[in-house]
Structure formats: structure tokens, C-alpha cells
Amino acid sequence: MWPGPYSEWGSKKNIIASCDQSLKRLQSDYVDIFYHHRPDPDTPIEETARALDLLVQQGKALYIGISNYSAEQTKAITKVFRALGTPFIIHQPRYNMLDRWIEDGLTDVLADEGIGAITFSPLAQGLLTNRYLNGIPADSRVARPDSPFLSPEKVDQTISTVQELNKIAQQRGQSLSEMALAWNLQQPTVASVLVGASRLSQLQDSVHALDNLTFTAEELAAIQKILA
């Protein structure tokens, strides 16, 4: 947020200042949900939790969310929030067919604590779309040398998997991206997904995922076999 100490992470100084700066940019008195986007290894989790709770007390946020917290970190901060009476309602993790880390404990914690997940990167930066089914298009961001998230190597590593998933999507009468979003939503702890779009057609494609959210046991087993 600014040069020098306390410029990021989870200290009370950073959290309060970050919220104040965001509200100033938004020209708003409050936000519906204020997220803490990553746990701070150098700040006690109690300080982070109390700072987030203070935002609610000050009327700057109605609810609190966290992002990228592990199962144990989520359990720890939830305990503090419950003691404080903080309206902590949502966890925002990265989750998609190619990145299922939340299934290794986090989904259990969310279910036990009654907290929903709103997942980001559900299409794996475009890997779970028809964009790279037949290789890397010359005008794609993967083809650019400055692409921060995707690389030709990553496309090469996943292309056979994505092609097999696309066959199941076609059998379901969906595009690959529609099926990928529907698959996210069939996870019981996932309340919603965050979708990005650079064109209206991409957003329309995402919305059509709602046309078929049900998977048969055979489809889930086939998907699991491909992803294993």
C-alpha cells in the first residue's frame, strides 16, 4: 500500500489504513464485505482478527471475509472471531478442477464452522475453457512473454487432461467452461464463484453454467479419474 514497514500483510495499522484508503477511493462510508486476502506469518492472528473486527465496530464494513487461509489458519481465526462476535461469513480461496487444495482439510473446516466459500480462478486462468484445447493461439496471453500466471509449459502439462474433460462437457451439452463452473458449484461449501470476462460472450457463457448444475455419479467418477 505504501513504502516502509506495516505497508502490507495483517498488522492492525495496515488493515485500518488499507480500509480507509479503499473507502476514500470508492467514495463510500462502508463496504459490505472487507476481505483479508492472505495470512500474515509475522503478525499474531489475534491482532489481525481484532483489527478486522474493529472495522465492523467502526461501521466501515458490514461483514468480514478472509482469503487464502489454510485449514488450520481458518480454524484459528474463526475461534477468535467467534469470541469477539465478529460477523465472519466467507472464505475466498482459489479452487478449480486443476487446483483442488481446499479439499485437503479446508472444506471440512468450512462445513464444521458454517462458513461459505466464494472461489476465485474457477477456470484456471482460461485453461478450463476452449481457448487452449488445440494448443496456444498466437493472440493469447500465454503467447506473451510477460504473462504472469500462465506459461506454455503449463498449457502443455494440462492439455490432454483438458481435452478429456471437454469430452464429458460435450456429452452434458455444455462448454468446458460451463461444466468447470458447475463442478465448482457442486462442492457443498461453495456458495458462489468469481468469474472474470473480457467480452460479453464470456460472461454469457459463464451464466449458462446454471442451465445444468447436476452431475451423475458416473460423470463425477469419470471426472475424478481424469483429474487423479
UniProtKB/TrEMBL annotation:
Q: Which UniProt keywords apply?
A: NADP, Oxidoreductase
Which Pfam families did the record assign? Answer: Aldo_ket_red
Where the record annotates domain NADP-dependent oxidoreductase, the positions are 2-227
Tell me if Hydrolase is a UniProt keyword of this record. Answer: no
Q: Which domain of life is it from?
A: Bacteria
Keyword match Chaperone = no
Please report which protein family the annotation says this sequence is part of. Answer: Belongs to the shaker potassium channel beta subunit family.
Protein name per the record: NADP-dependent oxidoreductase domain-containing protein
Species of origin: Latilactobacillus curvatus (Lactobacillus curvatus)
